[in-house]
């Protein structure tokens, strides 16, 4: 169980430094399979820490960003 949360931290840290990162970019950057990155991103989205920024695209190309407490995506400069 702890392994999943450790992966969540790595994913969260990457998205913090790279808002708008896609599932594929996250997986490649932290060297994990896309399937695992998807699980981590889904868990973080379900927990309300991240939001899908580009819904309606294939899973591997969805981009993610931090969510505000009210459920609105955090605006990031340049995106």
Automatic annotation (TrEMBL):
Pfam families: MarR_2
Molecular-function annotations in GO: DNA-binding transcription factor activity
Recorded superkingdom: Bacteria
Location of the HTH marR-type domain: 11-55
Signal peptide positions on this chain: none
Protein's UniProt name: MarR family transcriptional regulator
Taxonomic lineage from the root: Bacteria, Bacillati, Actinomycetota, Actinomycetes, Kitasatosporales
């Amino acid at each position: 169980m702890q392994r999943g949360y450790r992966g969540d931290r790595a994913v969260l840290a990457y998205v913090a430094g790279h808002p708008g990162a896609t599932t594929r970019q996250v997986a490649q950057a932290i060297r994990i399979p896309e399937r695992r990155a998807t699980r981590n991103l889904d868990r973080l989205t379900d927990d309300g820490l991240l939001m899908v920024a580009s819904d309606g695209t294939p899973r591997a190309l969805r981009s993610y960003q931090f969510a505000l407490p009210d459920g609105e995506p955090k605006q990031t400069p340049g995106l």
